[in-house]
Amino acid sequence: MSSWRLGDLAERLGAELAGNPDLRIRNIRPLDEAGSEDLSFLHNRKYIAKAKLSEAGAVIVADAGLLPGRNLLIAPEPYLLLARALELIYPRPSETEGVHPSAVVAEDVGLGAGVSVGPQAVIGPGSIIGARTHIGAGCVLGRMVEVGEDCLLHPRIVIEDGCRIGNRCILQGGVVIGGDGFGYASVDGVHHKVPQVGIVVLEDDVELGANVCVDRATLGETRIGRGVKVDNLVQIAHNVSVGPGSILVSQVGIAGSTQLGAYVVMGGQAGAAGHLKIGNGAQISAKTGVFKDLDAGALVSGIPARPRREWVRAQAGLARLEKMRKRIDEIERQLEHMKEEA
Amino acid sequence: MSSWRLGDLAERLGAELAGNPDLRIRNIRPLDEAGSEDLSFLHNRKYIAKAKLSEAGAVIVADAGLLPGRNLLIAPEPYLLLARALELIYPRPSETEGVHPSAVVAEDVGLGAGVSVGPQAVIGPGSIIGARTHIGAGCVLGRMVEVGEDCLLHPRIVIEDGCRIGNRCILQGGVVIGGDGFGYASVDGVHHKVPQVGIVVLEDDVELGANVCVDRATLGETRIGRGVKVDNLVQIAHNVSVGPGSILVSQVGIAGSTQLGAYVVMGGQAGAAGHLKIGNGAQISAKTGVFKDLDAGALVSGIPARPRREWVRAQAGLARLEKMRKRIDEIERQLEHMKEEA
Amino acid sequence: MSSWRLGDLAERLGAELAGNPDLRIRNIRPLDEAGSEDLSFLHNRKYIAKAKLSEAGAVIVADAGLLPGRNLLIAPEPYLLLARALELIYPRPSETEGVHPSAVVAEDVGLGAGVSVGPQAVIGPGSIIGARTHIGAGCVLGRMVEVGEDCLLHPRIVIEDGCRIGNRCILQGGVVIGGDGFGYASVDGVHHKVPQVGIVVLEDDVELGANVCVDRATLGETRIGRGVKVDNLVQIAHNVSVGPGSILVSQVGIAGSTQLGAYVVMGGQAGAAGHLKIGNGAQISAKTGVFKDLDAGALVSGIPARPRREWVRAQAGLARLEKMRKRIDEIERQLEHMKEEA
User: Ramachandran region of residue B148, left (φ > 0), alpha (ψ -120 to 50) or beta?
Assistant: First the structure.
């Protein structure tokens, strides 16, 4: 195990240093697990008490005043500094450049400088792989696939014919890009398959989680915008477009032709019906079912989706239904009584 | 890029022609993207205005009267005609017949005429692959697996021992057929595995989406009926049977031993509990949770599922709960007032 | 097909025998399908009538008095006896010991006695595979992966660098263990990836269903406790811990850092938000959305989760909302009338 001098870390990370620059750091650990040779982090003020009790040798923090007398790396965005520190202290092992002898790469495939192709991978004719991209073990890329530069494809990914991946994309294991969209012409009880001849386009800096499915368009493109981050087991149907910077949490499903604006957030297990427009910055709670268009900036919850406040009130009301019914019973009793008296 | 004479297209597709038979068609594009060498389509009257403005060279349509003076391919089912036109103009590239040298196929496997087996695929002993079927790159078929004729297995599919696939089935990438059903005998805090010794049977013309899971039966069969279409990431548990012509949209889950009739439709993210009977033609909305048997033709929504109309009314009522509470408050005030006056 | 003498079966399974020990048993079948050479089972008293009508040669049962005059295997836990009988009569075919020539196994991998590695599998440097474990065709294990003894890895599983699997674990096809957790530092509209440098640990006797995803921790471990059983397509996020003996039914999702106690049960398509504590033995209905901590033994349903009884009452109330509204209308009419009369 190598170690880092705290002063060198500060310099490399562009952080301000407080305390002992000669401290040796070996690992990054959470506040309650860190010891004297560990760097830890405080990115949520909720944990100040914990930070004060922590035995961490040094702490990443936004404001030196929060932890007086400690060894600190100070930065306005401590969580981002943590990300950088993790990259530095735990670098991804480098892949062996070149094509593994067990891989099957068509003769005319274009491989950029520094590309690595793992064991048992398959790359079909006419495909192009950008410089420094890694194609993981067991990946299958079809014909005429384009993958940009500096991408990381984890093992056992499928990218079907003609699909295009931007630069610096990260795809986790088991992803399937370019499966056929779900389209049938149903006549007299027979569902005739509508060939899906479009493609999938991932713009730059997209990340897709494990076993995510993105279907090819019927015609044209299914498009995932720049910087979109998608968690595991998400379904993105044919002809969907997801605007830049959007976040799709695990097990979300988006039906065909729906268009998400920029910076939309969908919580876990939420779903959106087909042919909808979801405005920029809309936030859709976990488990919500969206069946209508949403304005930019909408905050919605529930099945069907409604404004979050309204949903919270309705749920509270649900819990009081029994009480309401009893009040109505009592009112009817009183009215009956009044009528008898009259 | 090759092109088609419109008159020849009409003849090959069995469509009626209106307009110029000598027009050259190169591509099929949506109404708003199509140009003078493109064929487009109008299958929903909602888009008539768009069709009139379209610059498409020719349009597929059900009724010539909708677009007078245009070049048209006329057919009673325009969406089906589109499907046929897509097949014709964008044929799937043919696969190289035979077994790729990197594939591992057991000696006794029966391969029909014209079968193709992709790179890195594995086929276990005793299996039989029907004529003209394509086994995609990286697929793993176990022992004694049967696949019918004219099937298309996309890359990286698993079919476990003894499972049987009908003719003309299409399986998208990442499908797992014949994983163990989820069954345990729980005694004194230990969940003992109940071996799952049944199989999965897919009848003819079934399509399964990417990363779909269909579990083998405990005993007997898990059965997917003729012509069933299943979207991505769907879960079908052990001993389920899905009747012919049913449609399961993305991320649906069906628990063990539940029986779906013919032409059942389950919307995205819907689920059905185990040991249920869902009648023919039942329609289950997206996100619905079915916990009881459903009659044939039932239309249901909600968690738990209830008749759709009732659910719509209940949801509308939820939005008015606050108002109801205020009305009760006001009634109580008035009663109080009346009593004081009396 | 071999056959078993009923008396020998009783002895091997440790069951009490009633009836003819010389009966030959060839298969195990459900009550309504079993014939004179079949063993069947009665583990739910609901099916006594069916059992009496069954033509099964012999029946597994808890109490001999339930089926007088029949050939019986009697045991206090008949479902467990069924599991044992299935193991005995339908043994899993043994795998060929050793490494298939098409597999790519790094030189320094430690392989225990009796290990089998299937075709096209990949095992990275520094990994260790315990005795008698089977690595299925097309699996990809990264660097420094540890798999215990007597494990069964079905085809096409991914286990990323450094993850550790206990003894007697069963992983179904398409599982992805150790994909990156979903963590970003979002600054000025850019989602910077937070490297996920922790691992996944599966304790002994864990089973994971097909296409399940378990993400590696940001730091430290994502941990699945001893004897946990996980159904298909479940999502387990970074830094989650699942207590021993828990059951996660298909398509469940658990968000980051949530801790489940021992023997928690989550029904199909249920979800839990991040950073929660779910107490021992909590039972979460299918489709429930848990957004707050749960006490030990809690029984909850609904979105958001509430005590099951309360939820059942609220759902019943929802169905009566229309009626409540009409009662309020009528009360207001009467009050109006009374005021007019006054």
Answer: beta
CATH for C30: 3.40.1390.10
Active-site residue list of C: 238
Asked if C140's CB is within 8 angstroms of A83's CB, the reply is no
Domain membership of residue C293 (yes or no) is yes
Domain presence at residue B64: yes
Chain B touched by A312 (CB under 8 Å) = no
pLDDT value of position B84:
97
Cβ-proximal residues to B341 (8 Å cutoff; 6+ apart), any chain? none
On the CB side of A314, how many CA atoms lie within 13 Å of its CA? 24
pLDDT tens column, C151-209 = 999 999 999 999 999 999 999 999 999 999 999 999 999 999 999 999 999 999 999 99
Of C174, C269, C319, the CB nearest to B310: C319
Q: How many domains is chain C built from?
A: 2
**Both structure tokens of C200:** 């996944």
Q: Establish if A291 touches chain B: CB-CB under 8 angstroms.
A: yes
Same domain, C74 and C112: no
% chain C with pLDDT above 70:
99
What span, in angstroms and rounded, lies between the C-alpha atoms of C221 and B122?
34
- The whole model's pTM is what? 0.96
End-to-end CA distance of chain B: 93
- B71 and B169 part of one domain: no
Question: Does residue C326 sit within a domain?
Answer: no
Closest Cα in chain A, distance from residue B26 (Å): 14
Is the Cβ pair B229, A191 closer than 8 Å? yes
**Whether B68 and B189 share a structural domain:** no
Q: Which of A100, A191, A238, A337 is catalytic?
A: A238
- Look at residue A193 and tell me whether its pLDDT is greater than 80: yes
Q: Are residues B207 and B225 in the same domain?
A: yes
Select from B29, B87, B287 the Cβ nearest to the Cβ of A219.
B29
Long-range contacts made by residues B287-294, C-beta under 8 angstroms, separation at least 24?
A: B287/A271, B287/A289, B287/A303, B289/C269, B289/C286, B289/C287, B291/C286
Gap between the Cα atoms of B193 and B33, Å rounded: 56
Residues of B labelled catalytic: 238
Boundary (domain end) residue, out of C89, C114, C140: C89
CB-neighbour burial class of residue C280 (10 A; exposed 0-12, middle 13-18, buried 19+): middle
Kindly provide the b/e burial profile for residues A89-104, where b requires at least 16 CB atoms within 10 angstroms of the residue's own CB: beeeeebeeebbebbb
Given A89, A116, A141, which residue is the final one in a domain?
Answer: A89
pLDDT, tens digit, 9 for 90 and up, residues B90-116: 999 989 999 999 999 999 999 999 999
Range of the domain at B281: 98-309
Q: Do A317 and B338 touch (CB under 8 A)?
A: no
B140 with B232, same domain: the answer is yes
Complex ipTM, two decimals?
A: 0.96
Q: Does C176 touch chain A (CB under 8 A)?
A: yes
Query: Which of B185, B310, B331 minimises the CB distance to C83?
Result: B185
Q: Both B163 and B255 in a single domain? A: yes
**Residue C241 corresponds to which tokens in the numbers above?**
């811990």
Q: Is residue A1's pLDDT more than 70? A: no
Please report, for the domain that includes residue B193, its CATH number.
2.160.10.10
Tell me: do A126 and A184 sit in the same domain. Answer: yes
In the structure, what pLDDT confidence band is assigned to residue B322 with cuts at 50, 70 and 90?
confident
A102 and A80 within one domain? no
pLDDT tens sequence across C259-299: 999 999 999 999 999 999 999 999 999 999 999 999 999 99
Decide if B319 is inside a domain. Answer: no
